[in-house]
Design goal:
6 helices; five-stranded mixed β-sheet; 3 domains; alpha+beta; wza like fold; 281 residues; 21% helix; Outer membrane lipoprotein wza fold like
Length: 281
């Protein structure tokens, strides 16, 4: 495991610890905007009528049965909207000035997929407001061959509006790229909140190949704005016979292999092969 991977894993662990504690301290402020779905288990407390309180599982059709009221639609509603609706129905001839709260006991309806260069790819349940770094931590963090970017695909999906539960559907999905180096350095602005149906893909790191008169020929992870000089440095520098003036880049351009003369300050591209020639004398 290289040094950057170790730093990233430690950063993930530290930030996840903080981020997991925050929802516990501020659950009442975060939960009301959670959108209920089938298989979620709700904890409903009627403070002035304890016998009506209990846990209720939202069934496949998006409803559950509540005492006195009967079938109640829940799927697609925010917790705050469901709570408001229950108060109105109980107040309609059943309970005088009902005081109640609705929270999620078990999150079961919303998931995200984590794919690519993570240690445990798969499907993960969203528990309230969950961020990218928390999901990556659940997936065991990134692998040593991971790149510096995570690609989040957000599919077109229902979005609840107001208390009526009316849905709006975006015309297209959304693709968001997140800089994992920002997360590694503790930049929480890169730590986006995930939604039901999101797919998180961590691609392999792009590589550059360095051969010829270098001390450690081979393939190396390509960083942003890497120059030929930096690529040679990754390969241990020039040998005694290596020439800093006899440089080539072998590059695929529209499926055709091209050999390009290069200078030390030229930028390399993913998949490039840098070849260092011998000194003539």
């Amino acid at each position: 495991m290289n040094a950057n991977s170790k730093i990233f894993i430690r950063t993930l662990a530290a930030l996840t610890f903080v981020l997991v504690l925050l929802p516990l301290r501020g659950a009442s402020a975060q939960q009301p905007d959670y959108v209920v779905g089938p298989r979620d288990v709700l904890n409903i407390t009627v403070w002035n009528q304890p016998n009506l309180s209990g846990k209720f599982t939202v069934e496949a059709d998006g409803t559950f049965t509540f005492p006195l009221i009967g079938r109640v639609r829940a799927a697609g509603l925010r917790l705050r909207d469901l709570e408001s609706g229950l108060k109105k129905q109980l107040a309609d001839g059943f309970v005088r000035d009902p005081q109640l709260s609705v929270t999620v006991d078990q999150y079961q309806s919303q998931t995200v997929q984590v794919l690519g260069e993570v240690k445990t790819p798969g499907s993960y349940t969203l528990t309230g407001q969950m961020s990218l770094i928390e999901v990556l931590a659940r997936a065991g963090s990134t692998t040593e061959t991971a790149g510096n970017t995570a690609i989040i695909t957000r599919h077109a999906s229902a979005r609840p509006v107001g208390t009526s539960g009316t849905d709006t559907r975006p015309a297209d999905g959304e693709v968001v790229r997140v800089n994992l180096k920002g997360l590694q350095s503790g930049d929480l602005k890169e730590n986006m909140q995930l939604q039901d149906g999101d797919v998180v893909f961590v691609p392999k790191a792009e590589k550059v190949f360095v051969y010829g008169q270098v001390k450690l020929p081979g393939s190396y992870v390509l960083q942003d704005q890497t120059t030929v000089m930096q690529a040679i440095a990754l390969a241990g520098g020039l040998t005694e016979r290596g020439s800093s003036r006899r440089l080539q880049i072998i590059r695929q351009v529209n499926g055709v292999k091209k050999q390009l003369k290069a200078k030390l300050d030229d930028l390399v591209q993913p998949g490039d092969t840098v070849v260092v020639g011998e000194r003539l004398f």
